[in-house]
Amino acid sequence: MKPSIAELIPSTPATLSNWIAGEPVGPMSHAYYMDNVNPATGKVISKIPRSQDMDVQAALRAAQSAQLIWKKTSLPERADLLESIADAIEARKDEFAQAESLDTGKPFHIAKNVDISRAISNFRFFTGAIRHDETGCHMMGDALNYTVRKPLGVVALITPWNLPLYLLSWKLAPAIAMGNAVVAKPSELTPTTATLLAEIFNEVGAPKGLYNVVHGRGIEAGTALTNHPIVKAISFTGGTQTGRYVAQSGAEQFKKMSLEMGGKNAALVFEDADIERTVQGIRRASFLNQGQICLCASRILVQRSIYDEFVAKLVAAVQELTVGDPQSESSDLGALISDDHQQKIIGYVQSAKRDGGKVLCGGSIPELSDEIRGGSWFQPTVIVDLPTSCKISMEEVFGPVVVVHPFDTEEEAIEIANGTQYGLAATVWTQNLERAHRVSVAMDTGLVWVNTWLHRDLRTPFGGVKNSGIGREGGHYSLDFYSNAQNICISLPRS
Ligand code: NAD
What we know:
This protein is an alpha/beta fold. It contains 16 helices and 23 strands. It has helices at residues 5-8, 53-70, 75-91, 93-104, 108-131, 164-177, 192-203, 218-227, 240-251, 275-287, 304-319, 339-354, 391-394, 410-417, 433-442, 475-481; strands at 14-15, 18-20, 23-25, 33-38, 43-49, 137-139, 143-151, 154-158, 181-185, 211-213, 231-237, 256-260, 265-269, 297-303, 358-361, 381-384, 401-407, 422-423, 425-429, 447-450, 465-466, 469-470, 483-491.
């Protein structure tokens, strides 16, 4: 039987380490530890190093030494290592899922079937990608050009709390596949699976220092990393304002940068959509992971002729969602990441009410059992009757709250959808193929899904435009980012 959440919380918090050169090490200034809280209960589950400059420098030196060896390995050797990492995570899947669930407050079954499954797929995908990769070859009449991908050196991976291992592995697998060594700075709110992964690297015999982890605050450990000249590239996923700081610090030394940032994604529902399928699709797109996915739909735009019917059905479907114990298979939503985040979401709902919004369901903290009452919770919430320019419709809430707006014409829907600073993802719900294409290309976003959401082929380009990001991840886009292309031109004089 699965243990209860109370049984999973240690009576004395565990102490997590940084991982440098294949060894678990504490912070160099010994006193500096921070609390890692389980957001479902509010209890401290571990202490993590609050790393400073010195810790980051040690990790960077370890990575630099490892990279000198690693860059000499062949692509098939690297593919073998990636595959063995995937196998080793798979063998400890429940342990990883439990750690992710405890750090984030998300349901265990979602951590297992979404987060950890995808982390394993990321390593397997890039195993295949480098086994089957081809580079360019351009023939001239009197010369042959061919392209070689060379590693960058040491790269910094900075990741958020919402999908901790999922997003870290999405960067880490292609980074090492291309011959780089890595220093990772996971979110201080979700440090555990990045740490477990360091054990896996040792278990499979990876070179010591290929993957290093420094824990701590973004403003300390994060900036120490982005400012350091050893770091040749920064791959960052997180909020737009943090991305701006990261970009500024990396620009000084012309580091290569990939920035995946915030979103305010619109779902456009046309009168010819299959309503039942759309309601189910939008419920998932809005509330998976408590709405804490950068791709979640948070502005639902519905054609006026079906507005009343659609809203009634959406609200009924949302009211069927179960919020509760992350250990229970029947929980659809778990806790939010923290009390601070819960307060931010409550603030947005209050601002919506001040702007004239009507809360049709949710809008407050749910009733919960004693075991989890101390956590950071919020009900899935649907709000209507707001102007499209109000605060909650323009800013990223990153929680289980959606606003629904009516529209009359396709042009109006496009204008509203494109009317924010963000440009990450959109979904279009229609059975008219021409409209699906016409509206999709009109979206100022990096991603569009038609009659689906989070349907991912890992070869496709992933990323945003405007204040949602720079660069693309996925398939050869990732391989290109984590390498420098070099062209070699060989003269072939005509005899
Ligand atoms: P955040 O920006 O607060 O933190 C992200 C990471 O950056 C953390 O590891 C943090 O410690 C670090 N950091 C903070 N300040 C830093 C600094 N000055 N220098 C270097 N590193 C620093 O984001 P978050 O709250 O952890 O995550 C939520 C945000 O992430 C949302 O805005 C969400 O949209 C975004 N996100 C985007 C994507 C995407 O693919 N576009 C995916 C997931 C999450």
